[in-house]
């Protein structure tokens, strides 16, 4: 396999100077190693940014309104989109080129690649090591809120880097869309290097597993999509890793006498001494709910960046998970991924078009007695989650145990499932009666339902059931 490097060289810029009589757009040429590719660029009126779409050099588009390329070296290209279906040669695009500044030229803010083969060696953990960046995942305990103190365990990734070799500020990338591309590894390097990257969409990829480290990297995004990818697993072992880390942390902290703020952690320390090891996250949550001092204990993702500029100015930043929209639609997930419970700021979750066959799972639900039974799928985002799309799955029933314990959902889509029964308490035993505004139950197998408790409901769909 040849590795072709996409280099931002404006080889047409000087030629364009002689070409002043021509009204046709002057294309920006980028070089795919030795092959010229023409990019038709247009200036956006409002932002003055330049948007380009690239075609092989021979594919001229004379009807496009062009932008004078000789000004390009002094501008930042807003958006670059390449449809590799147009290239005859088997080329690999080097996204690493888009993470730093070239002479006279910044890489684009938005990149969309369609049907491309991506050169992945430079987007893996190996590249971070090469650039002297070290990453380390661990658990830290933190207190939140001076008024109502709450304890949180944060699964933290520490990113330590040396600004003389690693320059996050030179990566301008804000959004990356890879559609029908050959994605061999998750592009974790981009999540670490490009601090402005907030939107990553991987659509129609051969990736069918997302690892814990990938997910920890992705938490600094605001919007993360892996769809149409036959995803069967998303950080399935997250709680094994997180609990292991918490056990180690507490063993150390108890031995060292460094457990923070005693009153709020008393229950946790007591429980740790009693059990020796935490093996179930639901056990922790249950104990927290029942303790008088530890109310609201939760786990979440966070990131710590340490910029090692010089010995005297070491900079620490603790950044909670930024993920607001998580989209795992059109995959093959069979249950709600546990990792959702660690995403503290999640507002919208799209799990439609999967193979989810139950809202209940022994790992996440705690049913010793029915009045108190609950599932902790949404423990982290319980205060932020508003929209949950579970349409086009295989959910057979909703029982008395609340799958959305303590969640203030406004929009819930359960259409195109196999729901035969809806327990009369299914919604009562939750906050949904005072939060749910829209509920879609179209295309299920319901014979009756009882939704009187949903006092705020404005829209209800129940077409195509067995009513
Ligand atoms: C493409 O460029 C890369 C790096 O600049 C180089 O290593 C590679 O050999 C080039 N490939 C061809 C076919 O010229
Ligand atoms: C040619 O340019 C026009 C105007 O920008 C655009 O709408 C059209 O899609 C382009 N055609 C091709 C083949 O790129
Ligand atoms: C080539 O690019 C044009 C414009 O982006 C697109 O409409 C067309 O479908 C592409 N051709 C192939 C074979 O992908
Ligand atoms: C940072 O990198 C530079 C150049 O690679 C090196 O000289 C310096 O010692 C590094 N600083 C630290 C703290 O590792
Ligand atoms: C990594 O650090 C070592 C030692 O400080 C240095 O020699 C090397 O050049 C650095 N690598 C990069 C890519 O800066
Ligand atoms: C997903 O699986 C189906 C059926 O096995 C296959 O046809 C399709 O190409 C797969 N999609 C991807 C993106 O690999
Ligand atoms: C406990 O003390 C050891 C040795 O001083 C130290 O490495 C570790 O970070 C401490 N752990 C905690 C949680 O305070
Ligand atoms: C901790 O609890 C003790 C006794 O229950 C109380 O006197 C003390 O003020 C509490 N400390 C804090 C920081 O809340
Ligand atoms: C999720 O992705 C699919 C396919 O890419 C898209 O159709 C859908 O609108 C997305 N959902 C959200 C909530 O953005
Ligand atoms: C659920 O709540 C509604 C309204 O508060 C009430 O009318 C209904 O009897 C409750 N259902 C059950 C099974 O308790």
From TrEMBL:
UniProt signal peptide: 1-16
Q: Is the keyword Repeat assigned to this protein?
A: yes
Offer one Pfam family short name for this entry.
Answer: LRR_1
**Which PANTHER family does UniProt cross-reference here?**
NISCHARIN RELATED, PROTEIN PHOSPHATASE 1 REGULATORY SUBUNIT 7-RELATED
Q: What name is this protein filed under?
A: Protein toll
Tell me which PROSITE patterns the record gives. Answer: LRR
GO cellular-component term (any): cytoplasm
Species of origin reads: Macrostomum lignano
Note the superkingdom of the native organism: Eukaryota
The record's keywords, sorted A to Z, are: Leucine-rich repeat, Repeat, Signal
């Amino acid at each position: 396999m040849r590795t072709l490097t996409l280099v931002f060289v404006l080889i047409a810029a000087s030629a364009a100077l002689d070409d002043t009589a021509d009204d046709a757009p002057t294309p920006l040429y980028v070089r795919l190693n030795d092959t010229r590719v023409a990019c038709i660029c247009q200036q956006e009126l409002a932002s003055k940014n330049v948007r380009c779409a690239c075609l092989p050099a021979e594919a001229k588009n004379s009807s496009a309104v062009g932008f004078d390329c000789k000004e390009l070296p002094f501008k930042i290209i807003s958006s670059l989109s390449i449809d590799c279906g147009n290239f005859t040669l088997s080329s690999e695009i080097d996204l690493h080129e888009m993470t730093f500044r070239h002479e006279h030229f910044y890489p684009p803010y938005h990149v969309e690649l369609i049907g491309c083969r991506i050169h992945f060696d430079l987007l893996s953990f190996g590249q971070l090591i090469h650039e002297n960046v070290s990453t380390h995942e661990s658990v830290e305990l933190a207190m939140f809120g001076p008024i109502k103190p709450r304890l949180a365990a944060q699964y933290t990734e520490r990113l330590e880097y040396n600004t003389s070799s690693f320059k996050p500020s030179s990566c301008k990338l804000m959004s990356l869309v890879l559609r029908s591309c050959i994605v061999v590894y998750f592009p974790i390097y981009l999540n670490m290097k490009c601090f402005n990257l907030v939107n990553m969409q991987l659509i129609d990829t051969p990736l069918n597993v997302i690892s814990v480290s990938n997910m920890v990297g992705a938490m600094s995004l605001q919007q993360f999509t892996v769809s149409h990818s036959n995803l069967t697993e998303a950080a399935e072992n997250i709680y094994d890793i997180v609990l292991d880390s918490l056990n180690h942390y507490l063993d150390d902290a108890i031995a060292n006498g460094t457990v923070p703020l005693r009153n709020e952690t008393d229950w946790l320390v007591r429980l740790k001494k009693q059990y020796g090891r935490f093996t179930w996250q639901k056990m922790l949550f249950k104990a927290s709910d029942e303790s008088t001092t530890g109310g609201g204990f939760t786990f979440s993702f966070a990131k710590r960046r340490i910029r090692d500029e010089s010995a005297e100015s070491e900079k620490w930043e603790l950044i909670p998970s930024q993920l607001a929209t998580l989209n795992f639609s059109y995959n093959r997930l069979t249950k709600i991924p546990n990792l959702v419970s660690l995403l503290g700021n999640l507002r919208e979750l799209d799990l439609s078009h999967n193979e989810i066959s139950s809202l209940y799972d022994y790992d996440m639900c705690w049913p010793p007695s029915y009045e108190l039974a609950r599932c902790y799928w949404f423990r982290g985002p319980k205060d932020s989650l508003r929209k949950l799309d579970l349409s086009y799955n295989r959910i057979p029933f909703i029982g008395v145990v609340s799958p959305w314990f303590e969640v203030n959902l406004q929009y819930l889509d359960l259409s195109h499932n196999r729901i035969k029964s809806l327990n009369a308490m299914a919604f009562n035993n939750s906050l949904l009666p005072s939060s749910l505004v829209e509920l879609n139950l179209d295309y299920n197998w319901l014979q009756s339902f009882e939704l009187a408790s949903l006092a705020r409901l404005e829209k209800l769909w129940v077409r195509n059931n067995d009513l």
